[in-house]
Amino acid sequence: MEAHRIATLIIIAASLLIAVLIYPAAPEQIPTHWNIGGEPDAWSDAAFGLAIIPAILLATALILGALLRHLGSGDTKTRRATGWFIALVLALLLAIQIFQSLTILGYPVDPAFFFPILFALFSLGISIILPRIMKRNKMMGIRTPWTMKSDEVWVRTHQRSANIFRIAAGLTLFGVFYPDHIFLFILVPAIIALLWCVLVSYIEYKNLREMP
């Protein structure tokens, strides 16, 4: 079995195990959502609240796994990279579940510290995965009108765009020092990175067409 599939199964099992272990110690009402300031603003009964994230995680794994089978690239390296992206998304959800669980157990982690680091690591993970998506496909990658017209533009765009996600990760980390603006430090670098990817794909396509 491929490593990304093993990682996915481990994450799913860990999520289910955490929910089962936390339930006996959970109060009747537990937080299920936090506002921009990191304060709980939605509550639910323990059984439902603990089941939400594992259910979302499992559904995400099944849906993305099905999409990978039916829409993913036939290229082995690209399929593996997509598999690791799925594992990365699931790891993000698992981390949020751990944050919730620590809060329930009375060991809350400062959200101003936790979430900027979490999303910075997520952006860093994307920067590692992007250059490995070597072939055009209908599911994963920087799918712009220009990358979808040329294999060369696709490869160049993915190779060049990795750096912008590393920069986005660094910018996101600054949210630790500005707790009142966590949301902006998570969202804005991600938007900038996505827009940069679109711009790079256009520039690469234009340069390719101008080549003699």
Characterization of this structure:
The protein is globular. The protein has 212 residues and is mainly alpha-helical. It folds into two domains: 1-109, no CATH class; 111-212, no CATH class. Strand 1 (29-34) and strand 2 form a beta hairpin. The longest helix is centred in the middle third of the chain and has 29 residues, at 76-104. It has a two-stranded antiparallel ribbon with strand order 1-2. It is built from six helices and two strands, in the order αββααααα. It has helices at residues 3-22, 46-71, 76-104, 111-129, 151-173, 182-210, and strands at 29-34, 40-45.
Shape: globular
Q: Strand fraction band?
A: 5-15%
Can you summarize the main beta sheet? 2 strands, antiparallel
Oligomer: single chain
Note the gap between the termini.
46 Å
Number of helices: 6
How many beta-strand segments? 2
Average pLDDT value? 88
- Contiguous runs where pLDDT drops below 50 for at least 5 residues: none
Class derived from helix and strand content: mainly alpha
Number of domains: 2
